[in-house]
Amino acid sequence: MISVAEARARILSAFAPLPAETVALPDALGRVLAEPVVARLTQPPFHAAAMDGWAVRADDIAAAAANSPVPLRRIGESSAGHAFGGSVGPGEAVRIFTGAPMPDGADAVVMQEDCSADESSVQVGRAVVAGRFVREAGFDFVHGQELLPKGRRLTARDIALAAGGNVPWLSVHRRPRIAILATGDEIALPGDPLGPSQIVSTNALGLCALVTAQGGLAHNLGVAKDTPESVAALAKGAAGCDLLVTTGGAAHGDYDLVRDVLAERGVALEVQTVAMRPGKALMFGRAGSVPLLGLPGNPVSTGVTAVLFLRPILRLLQGLSPEDDGLPLRARLTVGLKANDRREEYLRATLAAGPDGVLAVTPFARQDSAITSLYAKADCLIPRTAHADPEPAGAMVAVLPLTDGALSI
């Protein structure tokens, strides 16, 4: 058996970021930039009002006060999309609205609440300095400025920024195509009639959801029966994909056929077992153009190994750092932990804010790798090294968030 770190290193060394493709801005949410986004204009393109009010010359109203307002001649209006065409001279003012271009000659805006006006004049009751409530041209960004860096996963805010920069098309990494193959005579699809010895398939659908949430394209190949012919036939559906992920069949039992079937077809296994719990029965190999990641069949083992191995692969393929996958946090144990044995352990746990604001982490009392109901409730994993010493309640430990979703607003 090898360590989790060594297994990750061997697996990730087989992958590189996928090539770039160009997509329309409305289709870019969640995609990862292969090239920076550069502004194609200056924003705002002109000096603009930051407030509804009156565009004035600050020198003209230097003596203005509520009990002694300064009268100015009203000469026009500037609104968004409709700039005032003239120039503001001494003793003049222009009605202006937020976002509208500042007229030539004016250098400040007085809020409408500090003025009173009629059809021909305005009484300004407060002095302002030059530049007050004025957004200068380029206040946000300028033409040629990098708005978004290469390697960024695009959020809704990023889409809005790129649109503001007048960028209609983006260069992004191609989405990873991941084939998912479940195995086992005991597996039936949700809603199908169940035989007396069958269980409902959870692994394939959960993995497809994780792939989708991480920005990939999942291809569910179905469930292979426990025969070499069935496994081989369905595995052919992975042609053209970037990775084939199997669940079950990776151990050494009489009915664990995936390892043997693929070995017969030239798959050279670079990882066969990993010193971890849950998830020891994990394998990785390559044959031709489609690498294979074989995950264990127990549903929680599948989920944990997918977080530790499949999720970083998906990140790397999209041009992201696999090492930033699920930023580790520190949290305070609410209960003590026993000493660990020779395998690394990943305890399922919940997070909550403690009374002092420090994160508190509580591992489930039951850690069996078949308890999917508790895994669904988990917020994080508590990684424990091989031969770890006992940890008392109150100790600060590392936790790995189970944030399957890659998208952020």
Automatic annotation (TrEMBL):
One of its GO terms (molecular function) is molybdopterin molybdotransferase activity. Its EC number is 2.10.1.1. SMART domains: MoCF_biosynth (SM00852). Pathway: Cofactor biosynthesis; molybdopterin biosynthesis. It comes from the Bacteria. One of its GO terms (biological process) is Mo-molybdopterin cofactor biosynthetic process. Pfam families: MoCF_biosynth, MoeA_C, MoeA_N. It catalyses: adenylyl-molybdopterin + molybdate = Mo-molybdopterin + AMP + H(+). Its cofactor is Mg(2+). GO terms for cellular component: cytosol. Residues 179-316 form the MoaB/Mog domain. It is an enzyme of class 2 (transferase). InterPro entries: MoaB/Mog-like_dom_sf, MoaB/Mog_dom, MoeA-like, MoeA_C_domain_IV, MoeA_C_domain_IV_sf, MoeA_linker/N, MoeA_linker/N_sf. Belongs to the MoeA family. Catalyzes the insertion of molybdate into adenylated molybdopterin with the concomitant release of AMP. PANTHER family: GEPHYRIN, MOLYBDOPTERIN BIOSYNTHESIS PROTEIN. This is Molybdopterin molybdenumtransferase. It comes from Azospirillum humicireducens.
